[in-house]
């Protein structure tokens, strides 16, 4: 259990650091939208602003999600939960985090397939495609681009989604470990701010 709790602390430290850095991404988003407003009012409207704002929001949301789980700011029905003991909450959380892990696993598999498609792979085995890219047996094909006038490549934002989903999976595993420890009676300091 000590090794598992060490892993949980390591994941918590990573997601706390990334979350605190990504938190300032809202200023990047505000800057893009401010430039969009200024360019539409005084200059020629920029083609890239709306799509870049969407990409920035995806990065903000996906990379900030694990931090949200860490500090407990995710939405929860508190009708009964708020009155339960810490041990009972941990027992219920062990069950519910298993559903979260399954959901995030399905999302990650879908994101891998979508990212493989954006890199020019049209097969049905995205994991094997990425393994083949690493080993040199596969190559990148015709990359997907947005259908807008700006036409950016799509793979960077899809890669950010994969990284965010992996971090969320790790954070969900960390929460599972901490909840298991609490359920069996171990005293785990609460990381929630």
Automatic annotation (TrEMBL):
<dbReference type="InterPro" id="IPR007387">
    <property type="entry name" value="TRAP_DctQ"/>
</dbReference>
<dbReference type="InterPro" id="IPR055348">
    <property type="entry name" value="DctQ"/>
</dbReference>
<comment type="subunit">
    <text>The complex comprises the extracytoplasmic solute receptor protein and the two transmembrane proteins.</text>
</comment>
<comment type="function">
    <text>Part of the tripartite ATP-independent periplasmic (TRAP) transport system.</text>
</comment>
<protein>
    <recommendedName>
        <fullName>TRAP transporter small permease protein</fullName>
    </recommendedName>
</protein>
<keyword id="KW-1003">Cell membrane</keyword>
<dbReference type="Pfam" id="PF04290">
    <property type="entry name" value="DctQ"/>
</dbReference>
<keyword id="KW-0472">Membrane</keyword>
<feature type="domain" description="Tripartite ATP-independent periplasmic transporters DctQ component">
    <location>
        <begin position="29"/>
        <end position="181"/>
    </location>
</feature>
<keyword id="KW-0997">Cell inner membrane</keyword>
<keyword id="KW-1133">Transmembrane helix</keyword>
<keyword id="KW-0813">Transport</keyword>
<feature type="transmembrane region" description="Helical">
    <location>
        <begin position="17"/>
        <end position="38"/>
    </location>
</feature>
<feature type="transmembrane region" description="Helical">
    <location>
        <begin position="58"/>
        <end position="79"/>
    </location>
</feature>
<dbReference type="GO" id="GO:0022857">
    <property type="term" value="F:transmembrane transporter activity"/>
</dbReference>
<comment type="similarity">
    <text>Belongs to the TRAP transporter small permease family.</text>
</comment>
<dbReference type="GO" id="GO:0005886">
    <property type="term" value="C:plasma membrane"/>
</dbReference>
<feature type="transmembrane region" description="Helical">
    <location>
        <begin position="153"/>
        <end position="173"/>
    </location>
</feature>
<feature type="transmembrane region" description="Helical">
    <location>
        <begin position="91"/>
        <end position="112"/>
    </location>
</feature>
<keyword id="KW-0812">Transmembrane</keyword>
């Amino acid at each position: 259990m000590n090794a598992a709790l060490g892993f949980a602390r390591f994941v918590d430290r990573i997601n706390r650091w990334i979350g605190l850095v990504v938190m300032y991404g809202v200023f990047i988003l505000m800057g893009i939208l401010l430039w969009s407003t200024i360019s539409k009012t005084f200059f020629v409207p920029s083609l890239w602003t709306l799509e870049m704002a969407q990409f920035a929001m995806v990065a903000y949301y996906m990379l900030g999600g694990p931090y949200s789980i860490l500090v407990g700011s995710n939405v929860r029905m508190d009708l009964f939960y708020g009155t339960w003991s810490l041990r009972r909450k941990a027992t219920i959380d062990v069950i519910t985090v298993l559903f979260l892990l399954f959901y995030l696993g399905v999302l990650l598999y879908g994101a891998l397939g979508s990212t493989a498609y954006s890199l020019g792979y049209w097969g049905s085995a995205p994991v094997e495609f990425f393994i083949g890219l690493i080993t040199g047996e596969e190559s990148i094909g015709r990359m997907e681009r947005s259908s807008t006038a700006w036409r950016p490549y799509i793979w960077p934002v899809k890669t950010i989604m994969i990284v965010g989903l992996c971090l969320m999976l790790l954070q969900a595993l960390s929460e599972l470990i901490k909840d298991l420890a609490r359920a069996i009676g171990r005293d785990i300091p609460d990381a929630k701010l």
